[in-house]
Amino acid sequence: MAMVRCVTEMGMGVDVHGLDYTKAATRAVFDAIHHSSLGFQRMLGKTADDMTVDVTIGVSKPDQVDTAAVAATLPHGTATCKAVLGGLEIPSVDGNDGLLIANAVIIVSFDDGK
């Protein structure tokens, strides 16, 4: 089986209050997947459920992302998700809240059958 990378999409998600890393990550994934509508898989004799979707989330505290919950937001395909160091966190003036930005990169691949 040889996987062929077909689509790369990027997105950004923000949690304005609460520092919820999973919420920011799911918003970044939502942003990324709503930049395109994939129809080419029919030319390959495949469906959207045949795709492999690899998600990478960049946040300042990767261990705070529920990667299974983020992967579960994807409507099609077999998804994997990992969180890495990245994104941006701006603390509030009083230091007990903040603004959190997560970045997502989504890579869609299909098995070429070889």
Structure summarized in a few sentences:
The chain is an alpha+beta fold and 114 residues long.
SSE string, helices as H and strands as E:
EHEHEEE
Termini separation comes to: 5 Å
Q: Over all CA atoms, what is the radius of gyration?
A: 16 Å
CATH topology: 60s Ribosomal Protein L30, Chain: A
Which range best describes the helical content: under 10%, 10-25%, 25-40%, 40-55%, 55-70% or over 70%?
10-25%
Briefly note the structural class of the backbone.
alpha+beta
The low-confidence parts are none
CATH level 4 superfamily: Tubulin/FtsZ, C-terminal domain
Which CATH first-tier class would you pick?
Alpha Beta
Number-wise, the strands total 5
CATH architecture: 2-Layer Sandwich
- Biggest sheet record: 5 strands, mixed
Anisotropy-based shape: elongated
Descriptive overview:
With 114 residues, this protein is an alpha+beta fold. It has a single domain, classed as Tubulin/FtsZ, C-terminal domain (60s Ribosomal Protein L30, Chain: A, 2-Layer Sandwich). Helix content is 16%, strand content 41%. It is built from two helices and five strands, in the order βαβαβββ. Strands 1, 2, 3, 4 and 5 form a five-stranded mixed beta sheet that branches. The termini are close together.
Topology:
Elements: E1 3-15, H1 21-33, E2 52-59, H2 67-71, E3 78-85, E4 88-91, E5 98-111
Parallel strand pairs: 2-3
Antiparallel strand pairs: 1-5, 2-5, 4-5
